[in-house]
Amino acid sequence: MVYTSYIHSLCGGIFRALGGGGVLIGTFEHNMDPKGRVFVPAKWREDLADTIILTRGMRGQGDSQCLMGMSLESWKSFSKRFSAIPMTDLKAQNVRRMLFANASDCDVDKQGRILIPNMLREHARIEREVALIGVDDYIEIWDTEAWKEYTRQCDAGELDIGYDLLAQRGI
């Protein structure tokens, strides 16, 4: 895990030095306060701006539930992709419905915190300790123990994390 954080930090510096910017990377663990607020890492705040749209993550079911967050600008771009989906594509419309119905705009306060709405905290089973994960142009917010278990399963080869799919796409 320490090695992974080192690589993420190194790559982030390279991307910014090359003028890439806007790359949300790394893992940060924070405690959520009793009101449901959590600190957004300072290095992400410029890219995420003053408002972060939070919604249910697209990880699926079970213990891998998390939240997904992005800047308002990224959300607008993300939502345009859904506008192109035909209304007759019922599965895609179900995903669209769940993402948009559970979305919330969260303002970053002067201390750099966002308030995670209760319905989203319940969905992701977040009670106190959270892991904020940078995933290029969006973030994920996990219960820390759920994130550690997910990482353990990936490291142990218990989950198909899709390296073969990436190779097929030339990545």
Order of helices and strands: HEEHEEHHEEHEEHH
Tally of helical segments: 7
- Rg (C-alpha, Å): 16 Å
Number of strands: 8
Task: Please give the largest β-sheet.
Answer: 6 strands, antiparallel
> Which regions have little confidence, pLDDT < 50, spanning 5+ residues?
1-20
Q: Give the end-to-end Cα distance, rounded to a whole number of Å.
A: 22 Å
- Give the structural class: alpha+beta
Which word captures the global form? Answer: globular
In spatial order, strands of the major sheet run: 1-7-8-4-3-5
Strand residue content: 15-25%
Helix content: 40-55%
Mean pLDDT: 83
Structural notes for this entry:
With 171 residues, this protein is α+β, with helices and mostly antiparallel strands. The protein contains seven helices and eight strands; from the N terminus they run H-E-E-H-E-E-H-H-E-E-H-E-E-H-H. The chain has helices at 2-17, 42-48, 72-83, 90-101, 118-124, 144-155, 163-168; strands at residues 27-31, 37-39, 51-56, 67-71, 104-107, 113-115, 129-135, 138-143. The strands form two sheets. Strands 1-7-8-4-3-5 form a six-stranded antiparallel sheet. Strands 2-6 form a two-stranded antiparallel ribbon. The radius of gyration is 16 Å and the shape is globular. 23% of the residues are buried.
What secondary-structure arrangement, pairings included, does this model have?
Blueprint: H1 2-17, E1 27-31, E2 37-39, H2 42-48, E3 51-56, E4 67-71, H3 72-83, H4 90-101, E5 104-107, E6 113-115, H5 118-124, E7 129-135, E8 138-143, H6 144-155, H7 163-168
Antiparallel strand pairs: 1-7, 2-6, 3-4, 3-5, 4-8, 7-8
